[in-house]
Amino acid sequence: MGIIIRDYPYYQFSNGRSGPAFNVAISKPGHEGRMMVLALIDSGADITALPKENIEELEQFLEEELTMSTVQMIDSEGQVIELKTYNILVILENEFPYLEDGMLPWDKRSFGDEDMWVGRDIQRKLKITLNGPNQTFTIEDPSHC
User: What's the angle, vertex CA 36, arms to CA 34 and CA 40, rounded to 5?
Assistant: First the structure.
């Protein structure tokens, strides 16, 4: 059995729905500052997505711009679209109510239901077990499974 990082209850969203979501810290690689976001596991997403507002908030918090590039993708209607991509460090820690120095406290930011969607690019690095009937999920370190 793997080392369990944490068991989580499903998050209760403001629209009345629930789903597998948990808190992570994000930062710029090599930067000490961190910002908390709510990360929803999206098994249908190829890549992890963060709303533009959160990118801007992170840059303002770090007082530094993130490294950005542009990629072309085909959307669900077959149209070629351009997307901005950013190099962001995603930090998964064991106990998030206890914030460390350098993290932006919960009560000092406007926190929405859709801070980050965790795509398969990150999911492939973890063992995630969903338990729909109990509305819980577990994240394990796959190197110990």
Answer: 135
